[in-house]
TrEMBL record:
This is Low molecular weight phosphatase family protein. The keyword Ion transport does not apply. CDD domains: LMWP_ArsC (cd16345). GO terms for biological process: response to arsenic-containing substance. It comes from Nitrosopumilus cobalaminigenes. Residues 3-130 form the Phosphotyrosine protein phosphatase I domain. Keywords: Arsenical resistance.
Length: 133
């Protein structure tokens, strides 16, 4: 049986999308992975798309999705990417989440977004290791 892994943030336009993309790339096939936001943006952050493309991950066709009760219910592991805005913070709605507290790439420079990307990659690889242990 496959496990459902869910990455959540507010806009689902950057951090959770990067985490989903890394998880898809590095995790074994018996995992289902998705990402969503409490108040999704209309599109992905263009700088996020650019820094992911630099390392060979194409996210052009990814779209922000709204976090649903069904996603939460069937998720075996939920990761909250971090919140600045407590009112729309996914961890208010989701119990037993991992909280990575990663800064939002919105309005950051490309170098700052690269740092965020690399931090997310490292966290995702650690998560995969812990799930396989």
């Amino acid at each position: 049986m496959s496990e459902n892994i869910l990455f959540v943030c507010v806009e689902n336009a950057g951090r959770s999308q990067m985490a989903e993309a890394f998880f898809r790339k590095f995790a074994p096939n018996h995992f289902n992975v998705s990402s969503a936001g409490t108040t999704p943006s209309s599109q992905l952050n263009p700088i996020v798309i650019k820094v992911m493309k630099e390392i060979g991950i194409d996210m052009v066709n990814q779209k922000p999705k709204i976090l649903s009760d069904v996603m939460i219910k069937y998720s075996s592991k939920t990761v909250n990417m971090g919140c600045m805005d407590k009112e729309s913070c996914p961890s208010l709605f989701v119990k037993d989440t991992l909280d990575w507290n990663i800064p939002d790439p919105k309005e950051k420079t490309i170098d700052e977004v690269r740092e965020i990307r690399d931090k997310i990659k490292s966290e995702v690889l650690n998560l995969i290791k812990s799930l396989e242990a």
